[in-house]
Amino acid sequence: MVEVKWTPVIIGLVIAIILALIIEMILPGWGIIAYLIATIYVGYTVGGGYTNGAIHGALVGVVASIIAAILALIIGTAIAGLAAGLAAGIIGVIIGVIIYGIIGAIGGAIGAAIKGE
């Protein structure tokens, strides 16, 4: 069982959200790069091998996607109405958790590989 190091995860989460907002303003649609950068940082910081980096990176990706989905639900229901916003939001949550979890695991493994433990 892997012991989760919460400090790097929280820092990576903050980095992911702030970078995603900045990158989305400059290059719309490229916010996923922010999650990759943040999860590489987390994988590098936690060290302990590829598995440990991948687990921590996936954790950042999943939590960040849930936060983004909650924000999208709030904005989507305000714009499109309750039924349309919720339907799109539920599908978006499922897809986002899968995609960002995979991206997070890849980034975490890359970060752990860079550290070389």
TrEMBL record:
Source lineage = Archaea, Methanobacteriati, Methanobacteriota, Methanomada group, Methanobacteria
Protein name (record)? DUF5518 domain-containing protein
Q: In this record, what's one Pfam family?
A: DUF5518
Work out whether the entry's keyword set contains Chaperone. no
Keyword Transmembrane helix appears in the UniProt entry: yes
Give UniProt keywords alphabetically. Answer: Membrane, Transmembrane, Transmembrane helix
The regions listed as transmembrane in this protein's record are 7-26, 32-51, 58-84, 90-114
> Which domain of life does this protein belong to?
Archaea
